[in-house]
Amino acid sequence: MVERVDNGTEVLLALIKVISDRCASRESAMLPTMHRAARHFHKTHRFNGSLCKQGLARNSSQFPACTRHETLPVTPTVPRIVPHLAAPDLSCAQLLGHVRDVSQRLQHNGMLKISLGFSDNNSQYLQQLIRSLHQHHGHQLPITHSATCGWFWDVRPSTTDFQTANHRARSETMEEFPWHTDCSYEDLPPRYFALQVLQHDRYGGGTLSVMNVERLSEQLSPTTRASLMRPEYRITIPAEFIKEPTKRHILGSLLLADEQGRSSMMRFREDLLTPLTERASRALDELKHALQHVEAQLHSTVHLTAADLPERSVILIDNRRWLHARNDVKDPGRHLRRVRWDAIPFPGVLN
Ligand SMILES: O=C(O)CCC(=O)C(=O)O
Ligand SMILES: [Fe+2]
What we know:
Helix 1 runs antiparallel to helix 2 (about 30-45), helix 4 (about 95-110) packs across helix 5 and helix 7 (about 220-230) crosses helix 8 (about 280-295). Strand 1, helix 4 (about 95-110) and strand 2 form a beta-alpha-beta unit. The protein has one domain: 4-Layer Sandwich (Double-stranded beta-helix), CATH 3.60.130.10. Helices cover about 25% and strands about 20% of the residues. The longest helix has 18 residues, at about 280-295. It is an alpha+beta fold. The chain has a six-stranded mixed β-sheet with strand order 1-2-13-5-15-3, covered by helices on one side. Strands 4-14-6-12 form a four-stranded antiparallel β-sheet. The protein binds 2-oxoglutaric acid (AKG) and fe (ii) ion. The site of fe (ii) ion has 3 residues, from loops. 2-oxoglutaric acid binds near residues 171, 177 and 336. This is TauD/TfdA-like domain-containing protein. One of its GO terms (molecular function) is oxidoreductase activity. It comes from Tolypocladium paradoxum. It holds the Pfam family TauD.
C-alpha cells in the first residue's frame, strides 16, 4: 500500500540535497550514515512514484540527461553509488554524448541505471546502445544466448515455454538467486550485463542486490586472496548451457587483480564450484564467510527494489566488479530482459 507523507516530502528532499552536496564535494565520510537515514526514512514513509519523481530532477547536475533533453526522473531511494541517466527517447542510444556518459559511468562506478522515457518492448534502445558502445568505446558485441534467442534472454517465471529445448533455466523460475557472477562457467565471461525491466514485481519480491567485489576482497586475508587467484577450481557448466556435449566444466580462478593491483574482480556461483586443492577449499570457505559479513554493510551492498527499478528502467552492471543476487519473485508477471556483452578471458595466476 502506498501512503503519501505530505510534511515528510521536504525533509526527504533536504536529506537528499545534503547527500548530493556531499557527493559533489567528495566529503564522503558521512555518506553511509546519510544513506542509512535516507533508507530508513524511505522505509518508514513509503512514497508513491510521482512524489519521488519531483525530487532533484530540475536542477541536479548529478544526473546528466541525454544531451538534447532536460527532464529526468529521480528515485531518491537508489543510493548515489548507482549513477542515473535518462533516455527520453530512442535517439539517445546513438547520441555520442549519451553513449560517452554511459561508457564513463560503467568505467567509474561499474554500474548505471537508465530511465527510458518511452516503452520499448523490443529492447531497441539496448540493442542500439550496445552497438554504439561497440563502435565508439571498444565494447565487444553480445554473446548469443542460443540460436533462437539471439542477444536477449527473457528473465521471467515460466512453467512451459522454456527458451532452451526441454530445460528450464533458473531465470525462468520464481526462486531466489544467491550471490553470483553471470556466466561464471564460461572461459570468457561477459564483462557487462544489462537488465531491462518490462514489468517490475508488483507484490514486493524480486529485489536485485549488488555487492562490490573490491569491498568484499578487503575482508579476505592475503593468503586467501592469493589462493582465489589460482586456477584451482572446477566450475560446472549448468545443463541448459552446455554447448559441447563433452565439455561439462571448466577449470579456473575466482579472483582477479586490476592494473593497480586491487583485487576488484571476481567470478562466483557457489553451487557450480568444486575446489581442487586444500588451499582452494580453505579460501572458498573464507570467501563464503566474508560474503555474509559484507552483505550486512550498507556501503558495500545495494538493494534495488521494484521502486528503485520500475518498469522502463534499465540497469547496466560490470559483471566482474559487482556480484549480484535477487530474492524470490512474488509476481508471476515479473519480466526482465537480459543481455550480456564484452566477453573476455578471466586469467588465473599460475604457481
Ligand atoms: O531476476 C533478477 O533480478 C536477476 C536475474 C539474474 O541474476 C540472472 O538472470 O542471472
Ligand atoms: Fe545473474
